[in-house]
Amino acid sequence: MKKIKLFLVITLILSVFISCATTGGSTPSSGGIAGKADGDPGPVLSASPVYYATGSGSSQSSSFNDAKMNAVQKAASDALGIAASLANRDKLESKIYIPSTANAYVYNETMEILDRGEESGNTTVSIGIRINLEALSNALRANEIYGNIILPQGGDVLLSDMERPAFAPEPVVTVAKTIEEKPAAESTSSSASAEATPEEIALIDEIISKLSFMVYYDEESAADPFLVKTAVGMANRYLSENGMEYVDLGQIEQIKKDQAAAYEDETGQGVSMIQWIAGKLNADIYIEIVVDANSNTKNNRYYGSASVSLKNFDASTAAGRGSSYYQTVPPAMSTVSEGDALNNAVASATFNAIQKAVDQARAYTQKELTQGIKYDLVVQNTYDSRLMRDFMKKMERKVKSIKRISTSPEETKYEVRLIGQIEDLEDLVYDVSEGLPGLEGMSLVYQRGNSITFDSGL
Q1: CA 76, 78, 83: angle at the middle one, nearest 5?
Q2: CA angle at 423 for the pair 276 and 425, rounded to the nearest 5°
């Protein structure tokens, strides 16, 4: 009997070892943490893996956001594992899986459109895009969602590229990959979640969602006023259909006509009139459109080709906020006239270009907001240097950073970085000064763009 028992124990141990040796690790079919056989280096792990997904919506913009978020969901599921994903389903859907925030977790410049279609007013699109795993993992941890390789103590989060869909063969010319692959130890992040608190992230999202745009054309290169106005109209239509604030072309033209003298008096032409008008109309981003178009006729059909270039600028500083370009391929066709073909081509090219322009403007704004917008703060009458030092120390606790640029009894200049608008900085100055004896009478003297000046009241 003892021999039989010993034989059974030995047999059981051998079967366990054989099972472990032959089974090995499992490899997810859609991407994720890949295992490898002996001698096989296995899939390359990355902090920005490519994922593929399909999305749909009532507009092209909403369908792209839906597709991006579906890709993010797949990556999150691979990183967390099935069990943790199911256990945190409600929290994921309310805190992370929000289509309007998809851009925070992807690298938009790497997006490849695999397929798109439209039926009964509903747009469907399939894409491939690189996921910003650092931003995603930080957001998951901020919401206390853990599992698999998402650990409370942090650590590198790496996944392999998802297998390319069978219907999408490798393109002859691939989308430019502007994300430089780095080892996890060297990776850096420009995401809001990596450097900002949850409260600041919420504020950043609110500011980005309320960005106001002003679209106008480059007057020096506008060969055909009708076509450039068509481009502006189509851009504004896109902004309107997607619920974004924008400045109507008629308002711009009216201010140009009525306030040319005021522009010269106020600026001395130190800034462009378009930037000045954007400030007057409270736009956050102004976009310049350049249109190049040509047409021809063949077999009683009219063809029009157009290339549209859009450049984004910050309305306060005129700093660049990205650019986009689109060319109609193949040309637009009309049976009416060459003018109609050109008009269709310009409208189509603009509609496609404006989407990328808006995404870039938002991405640039998000990056800047994460680091804090740079403001110039000037305080006049600062002969009490110790009091101004106390002022600076208290400001340090309320802003991302503050640096003294120069000081004298007449005035002190600071460079301030803050997640918020210029009005928020004004409120902070009042809050701090009210708590410092001697500065209770601090008052606003002047503000333009990102520069604001106060009198200390001393």
Answers
A1: 90
A2: 115
- In the structure encoding, which two tokens stand for residue 287, read together? 């976009």
Q: Would you report the helix, strand and coil content of the chain in percent, each value rounded to 5?
A: 45, 25, 30
Can you list the alpha helix ranges (DSSP code H) found in 178-224?
A: 192-195, 198-209
Q: Of 242, 244, 234, 330, give the one whose Cα is nearest residue 291.
A: 234
Kindly tell me the burial class for residue 384, based on how many C-beta atoms sit within 10 Å of its own C-beta (0-12, 13-18, 19 or more). middle
Which helix (H) or strand (E) is 18 found in, with range? helix 2-23
Q: Are 382 and 388 in contact (CB under 8 A)?
A: yes
**CA–CA–CA angle 58, 68, 207 (5° rounding):** 80
| CA torsion through residues 89, 92, 95, 101, sign | negative
* pLDDT category of residue 414 using cuts at 50, 70 and 90: very high
Rounded Cα distance, 333 and 342, in Å: 9
How many CB atoms neighbour CB 31 within 10 A?
Answer: 23
DSSP string, 60-100: HHHHHHHHHHHHHHHHHHHHH-HHHHHHTHHHHHHHT--GG
Which of the pair, 130 or 1, is modelled with greater confidence? 130
Distances (CA, A) of 179 to 48, 111, 163, 326: 8, 11, 19, 22
Cβ(320)–Cβ(313) under 8 Å? yes
Q: Please state the φ and ψ torsions of residue 10, each to the nearest 5 degrees.
A: -60, -40
The burial of 57, by beta-carbon neighbours within 10 Å (0-12 exposed, 13-18 middle, 19 or more buried), is given as middle
Asked if 211 contacts 322 with a C-beta cutoff of 8 angstroms, the reply is no
In angstroms, the CA 234 to CA 169 distance is 33
The string over 425-435, giving b where at least 16 C-beta atoms fall within 10 Å of a residue's C-beta and e elsewhere, is bbebbeebbee
Q: How confident is the model at residue 167 (pLDDT cuts 50, 70, 90)?
A: low
Separation CA 328–CA 234 (nearest Å): 15
Q: Tell me if 30 sits within 8 A of 76, measured CB to CB.
A: no
Phi-psi region of 28 (alpha: psi -120 to 50; beta: other; left: phi over 0): beta
- Alpha carbons within 13 angstroms on the beta-carbon side of residue 57 total 20
State pTM to two decimals. Answer: 0.50
Which pLDDT value is given to residue 17?
45
260: Cβ contacts below 8 Å, ≥ 6 apart: 273
CA 115, CA 123: separation in Å to the nearest integer?
11
Burial 169-207, CB ≥16 within 10 A → b, else e: eeeeeeeeeeeeeeeeeebebbbbbebbeeebbebbbeb
